[in-house]
Amino acid sequence: MAGTLPVFGSCTHAVVRDIPDSLAVEALRMSGGESVDMEKARREHQLYTGILSHKLGLQVLQLPADHSLPDCVFVEDTAVVCGDTALLTRPGAPSRRREVEAVKKILEDLHLNVVEMTDEAATLDGGDILFTGKEFFVGLSKRTNQRGAEILADVFKDYAVSKVTVTGTLHLKSYCTMAGPGLIAIGSSEHAQKALKIMQEMSEHRYDKLTLPDDQAANCVYLNIPNKGHVLLHRAPEEFPESAKVFEKLKDYMLIPVSNSELAKVDGGLTCCSVLLNKRA
Ligand code: GLY
Question: Is the pTM of this model over 0.85?
Answer without folding.
Answer: yes
